[in-house]
Structures are given as C-alpha cells and as structure tokens.
Amino acid sequence: EAGVAQSPRYKIIEKRQSVAFWCNPISGHATLYWYQQILGQGPKLLIQFQNNGVVDDSQLPKDRFSAERLKGVDSTLKIQPAKLEDSAVYLCASSDRAGAISGNTIYFGEGSWLTVV
Amino acid sequence: GEDVEQSLFLSVREGDSSVINCTYTDSSSTYLYWYKQEPGAGLQLLTYIFSNMDMKQDQRLTVLLNKKDKHLSLRIADTQTGDSAIYFCAERRAGGGNKLTFGTGTQLKVEL
Fold it and tell me: Strand A112-116 to strand A10-13: parallel, antiparallel, or no bridges (unpaired)?
C-alpha cells in the first residue's frame, strides 16, 4: 500500500516569499491533516480536513497560511508571505475515519522541510 | 491543559531495556500513542493503548498506562542501535475529532 506522499521534500526561500506544499494521502482516506514540526518540538496540528471540508483550523495562522482540499483527495498548504519562524517540517497525515471509537491510525508522510532565510 | 511532557534525552547500552516516560494533563484522553521518528523521516506509529487499559505488549514493546497519575511509559526490551530515534507520545482527546496532541519528544541514543 502506498503511503502518504509529499512534495517538495526540501525548500529554501527568503522571507516574504511564498511557498506551497502538496500532499497525496493514502487512497481512500477521508481525513487529511497538516502538522507543523519546529526543530526540537513535537508536531502541532495546523488544519484537519474531512473529505473537502475543514474540521479544525484553530491553530492555522490564517493571515499567512492557507490550505485547500478541493476534491477531497490531494491537498496543498501555502505560506505567503513566509517569516523566519515558519522554518519547520510540514507533515501531512491521513486516516480513514475521524473520531472513530477504535484506535484509528494516523499515517504520516516524510514531511516537507522548509528553511526561511 | 494542553501540555504533554517528556524528558528530552535517554541513553542506554545495546541489549538493555529502555523506558521512555510521558505525562499528560487531559483526563478525557481516549487513546494514547507512541510514534518513532528517525532522522529526516516522518512519524512511524509504534503502538497505541486505549485509556481503559493498563498495559499493552507488542513484541519488544510494552506500554504502561497509569490513568490516575496521567502517566504513560514505553519500554523497549533488548534495545538495538536501530532503535535510536526520537520517540513522541501523543494523546487523542474525547470530542476532539481525531486530533493528536504530541509531546516534545525523547531522543533515545543506543550505545554499543
């Protein structure tokens, strides 16, 4: 089974530039997540989609970050304009159900590493 | 509260057991997870435990949950050099969809 695919793996940009990350979840997974992992910290949820609707975006800095999942499959995360503190790994993850009673497994991609200089 | 706390570093000798500890604050947590992250890689789910369980064993891994003290631990038996990585505990809270709140991670170093 193919895992969660992300691109690009690495990106270096100057502050105030823009960047976009792409994610393809595991086939059939309705729920997609974007997490931000700053060096030395645990991942923090930015946004959660159920199909193409937003479930939770409470920690997404909406003045500069945006995300979409138009057809309920692939997703893009955009940062515009980028700040130095946005340097982090952006992890995409997917699961087949949200809020399920059973131990619902969330599968992570390898991440997109962003450096803002 | 939001905090899930872990100690930052753990060093063990190859063949010994490793115990990685985690404390959380939300008593409504339904599931607790352990993830492994190797350098340059994403997060790999190792195991999880439902909040009404005290213990779960899976090959070399043993998870202990003390719900009264909100304390979770991961024991790795016969630790190998390939176990060197950062280990994250995470909690899923009731009513929070499937959102995970992660700890800060414990870096495990296995020495020969």
Answer: parallel
Q: Does B103 touch chain A (CB under 8 A)?
A: yes
- Does residue A97 sit at the B interface (CB-CB below 8 Å)? yes
- Asked if residue A111 lies in contact with residue B38, where contact means CB atoms within 8 angstroms, the answer is no
Please write the tens of the pLDDT for every residue from B19-62: 999 999 887 778 899 999 998 888 999 999 988 899 999 999 99
- Cβ A14 vs Cβ A29: under 8 Å: no
Which residue of B35, B50, B97 is in closest CB contact with A99?
Answer: B97
Given the structure tokens 């340059």, which residue do they identify?
B40
The Cα of A6 is separated from the nearest Cα of chain B by a number of Å equal to 11
Residue A71, classed as helix, strand or coil, is: coil
Q: Is B51 on the interface with A (CB under 8 A)?
A: no
